[in-house]
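Cont'd.
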Amino acid sequence: MTGRPPSIRDVAEVAGVSTATVSRTLSNPDVVSEKTRESVFHAIQETGYRLNVTARNLRRQESGGIAVLVPNLSNPFFARILSGIAEIMSEAGYNVLITDTSPMSHDEHRFPEYFRLNQTDGLIILDGMLNRELLLNRGAPDARAPMVFACEWIDEIRRPTVTIDNRAASEMAVRHLVRLGHRKIGHVGGPPDNVLTTSRRDGTREALRAAGLPVRADWFYDGDFSLDSGAAAARSWLASKDRPTGIHLASDEMAMGFIGELHRAQVSVPQDVSVVGFDDLEIAPHFVPPLTTIHQPRIEIGRAAAKMLLERMRTPPQDRTRRPAPRVVLPVELVERLSTAPPP
Amino acid sequence: MTGRPPSIRDVAEVAGVSTATVSRTLSNPDVVSEKTRESVFHAIQETGYRLNVTARNLRRQESGGIAVLVPNLSNPFFARILSGIAEIMSEAGYNVLITDTSPMSHDEHRFPEYFRLNQTDGLIILDGMLNRELLLNRGAPDARAPMVFACEWIDEIRRPTVTIDNRAASEMAVRHLVRLGHRKIGHVGGPPDNVLTTSRRDGTREALRAAGLPVRADWFYDGDFSLDSGAAAARSWLASKDRPTGIHLASDEMAMGFIGELHRAQVSVPQDVSVVGFDDLEIAPHFVPPLTTIHQPRIEIGRAAAKMLLERMRTPPQDRTRRPAPRVVLPVELVERLSTAPPP
DNA sequence: TATGCCGATGTAATGGATTACATCAGGGAT
DNA sequence: ATCCCTGATGTAATCCATTACATCGGCATA
């Protein structure tokens, strides 16, 4: 009874037209006469026909999907960015393949799989630490593949980017501490080679310098954006003699890990030390204490990246390389909550 | 210079064999002679050939991908489950399409898109509130499509499931409060019709009954698993006269929202009220105070669901409907941290 | 009436890999 | 020497939708 699913042929037969007409009715309704159009739609109803996307993709030399490369899916920071991407992309009829790159970095072997030709029509990259050569040479998406960076980026690779002004954002964070009266201000950065780490650290330094405050190496702790690394930074802070009274951490997760660890040591925020995070995760306003932080418009970042990629996919390759890669910078804002106060 | 990418034909030509042999070399190396195999591999190297997955999928009547239906991507609970799924699935050569169902529930219209025939070879469903009929009748994955449920499930749909024993888990949570000496215990549940809500609430009731404690309707608050709903529950708690001294909330996010809101009202946990969550999110040990909660083996849930789906996809349809749907129940444990203490 | 054009539709090639079936060569058995 | 069998390989149909090109009918203009 239920043989194979109905194909365009069956529809054509029922409607009494050729397969070409059915196809046209579906992808370009205006070119067929109204009478035909109706009988085709009717035949589609009757047969229960559904387009075979794979066949279309094969013929059109597309894949119907795009891939998003996320450095770490467990980081809640990315969820809303992905929502934004998925929203725009599925509206445009694309599938969104989400790929966590963290296993790849250690297992280069599997990497090119994700780039198999025809596997994806485009790439949104949220991970600035991917192996450059791998990205450009080996795996199939040769230098001409539509590709946009969001949040993070890679300097040597000239591609459209959607970012925020990380430097200015960290400056804002630090200025806020300065404004509250802090004179001893520290910083916890992300992983060493990350572009965000660099810009945020530079912003922090710049703001300190502008305020005439010391930039002390022993007040600049290392982290990796994770909760645990925030806790580790807290331990360093506790261990030092001359402690900063205000700290700006390059991610909310670190800020929360930091505060959590201090709490365990009976040190309270903001009474004993003020904390400014970065990201404004959903949980930030619910944390104890509610976190002062830099708000990133994450859904917007995702949407903007998706739109940019769509545009990029629509422009023919030769035009693509010619024009300079557009750079969108979205605005951020400081959200003042209760993890900051005047110094003790 | 760079025409279209090399196809199996080009390889065949270079290797001096037929396309059939190339295909066999790739998908079934044992049947070709060693000499041929070598020359084919060599030709692949030389031409830079990559398999066109779309063509293979068309021919094999597969899609090469599976879809995961997540109720809410922003909920950090799902990240590790997705990691587990992706790990197993990409090992097996499948793409993983992650789909947030929250826009769908309101926009039924778009729903069937995701189920287009040949769009996915299987489904992992983490959302027990999907429209049953939609799932079974309309969209293409007619009743025979490989489909497994994880975390949540739908009673009327008999499919393999990977779950935890939610009822027993909540019993554990409540027993812990009882053991600490609490006699007035409340509960905050998830969204009304959710299967998890029901089982966890039942577990809570059962444990109270077993301990000879009152099950008071005014101590059972409504929530929806979100941070905000936890905060709302806290406001209800604050507003009531006769307050429970211990609360078990059906998700960590709610527990954190609850604690955060209480903190704002100068009520502290666990001094004034003890809190037990559910899930053991990454942030739970870093929260202030560190959260006592039920640990769910989330990566394992993801892995198990993926393995089950793979097996399901391998068994022919007729066998599939015949055999009873397997049910895997993974163990949970109570993690005692600092959000619980004896009652004031 | 003949010519030309346009809109609507059909015909058939195409995309790339898979695989049922056909073929062929070589070894072993009689 | 003949026949059969087996392992290796080739031939060609197939999966389904798309689209360049061909065709056809009808209307308008000369």
